Predict the structure of DUF4191 domain-containing protein.
Amino acid sequence: MTSATPEKVGFRQRVRQIFQVFKFVRGHDRLIVPLMLAAFLVPLLVGIGVAWLTGLWVIVPLAVLIAVLATLIVFSRRVQKATYAQVEGQPGAALAVLESMPGNRNQRNWKFTPAVQVSQQQDVVHRVVGRPGVVLLGEGAPHRVKQLISTERKRVSRVLTDVAIHDVIVGEDEDKVSIRKLQSHLQKMPKSLTPGQVGQVAQRLQGLGGARPPIPKGPMPKSARAMKGAKQQMYRGR
């Protein structure tokens, strides 16, 4: 049995992906061009000014590198903002955001099982296993989602008696977590499992089953999927 090898992406294809992302974000974000220009020019001009005053022209190449890095950071942040705007409010959006987390390409720290509980009104609960333990991630009307989470918690508790189980409901209310803050919220949770234990816990939960219709498998539109791919390429290239 042979293991799948990651698909190699050529330089031209990577540049084409990033350019497509830039075109899309520019159509929805008027600030991206001036912000990227400012991020590039400010450190460059400061570096040239310091070099001119001190005579240390070796500073200029360093200023160029800093300018390029600052531009990439600004670009990445604006892409992330546009991605959230595209998926926000769609069924399965929270899971799509989590699956695009930097550092999760090998799915070692987080393992996702989508739509373990679904209501007729398309409220949904996803099961996420990570360093904090098991996270039951709910999307939809709070009163229905809480009932779905309670049902799934009972199922998980029958399999796991020694692992922490957390409830997270996505939303904009005070007792919920905004989709824009979801990644950081999960990453800030207290760690109770090692990466190796994450895989073991996920394997123990496999018998509970996975996705159930009628939840749409992927809410992200084509443009947002392209942005996700380009972000991964940028992280891979750093």
Remarks:
- The beta strands are 110-118, 124-130, 133-139, 165-169.
- The helical segments are 11-28, 32-54, 59-87, 93-99, 142-159, 182-187, 195-204, 222-237.
- Residues 1-6, 214-218, 220-224, 233-238 have pLDDT under 50 and may be disordered.
- The first helix runs from residue 11 to 28.
